[in-house]
C-alpha cells in the first residue's frame, strides 16, 4: 500500500508529519496510542478524511487545518469552452471569487 498525503508524500510521516513510534502515533509532543499500524485505520480513527484508490490510500488534513492550508494559494490557470464554444480562462477572473463545479459520468 502507498500512503499519499495532501502534500503528495510516500510515507505516513512525510504525508502527515505524524510518525509511528513504540508509544503510538506521534507529532511533536503529542502521541496517540494505537494498536494497529494500518495508516488508513489510524487516520479514520482520528476522524480525519481518507480516500482509497486501488492500493493507494490518500490521507486528508483535519477540517480545522484546511483553511490555513489553502489560504493565499493560487489555482493553476486553465481554459475551457462553454456550451456556445466560447473559451474562458480562470486568469480572466483573478481577484474575484470563483465557484468551480465539476462532474464526471464515471
Protein architecture, described:
- The protein is an alpha+beta fold.
- The protein has a domain at 2-68.
- It is 16% helix and 25% strand.
- The protein has 3 helices and 8 strands.
- It has helices spanning 12-16, 39-45, 66-70; strands at residues 2-4, 19-21, 24-27, 30-32, 50-53, 56-59, 79-81, 87-89.
- The strands form 3 sheets. It has a 3-stranded mixed sheet. A 3-stranded antiparallel sheet has the order 2-3-4.
- A hairpin with a 2-residue loop joins strand 3 and strand 4.
- The chain starts with a strand and ends in a 17-residue tail after the last strand.
- The model has no long low-confidence stretch (mean pLDDT 75).
Give a brief outline of the structure.
With 106 residues, the protein is an alpha+beta fold. It is built from three helices and eight strands. It has a domain at 2-68.
Amino acid at each position: 500500500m502507498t500512503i499519499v498525503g495532501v502534500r503528495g508524500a510516500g510515507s505516513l510521516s512525510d504525508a502527515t508529519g505524524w510518525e509511528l513510534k513504540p508509544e503510538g502515533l506521534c507529532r511533536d509532543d503529542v502521541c496517540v496510542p494505537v494498536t494497529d499500524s494500518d495508516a488508513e485505520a489510524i487516520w479514520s480513527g482520528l476522524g480525519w478524511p481518507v480516500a482509497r484508490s486501488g492500493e493507494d490510500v490518500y490521507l486528508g488534513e483535519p477540517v480545522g487545518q484546511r483553511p490555513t492550508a489553502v489560504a493565499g494559494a493560487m489555482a493553476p490557470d486553465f481554459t475551457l469552452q462553454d456550451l456556445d464554444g466560447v473559451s474562458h480562462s480562470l486568469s480572466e477572473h483573478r481577484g474575484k471569487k470563483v465557484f468551480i463545479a465539476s462532474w464526471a459520468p464515471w
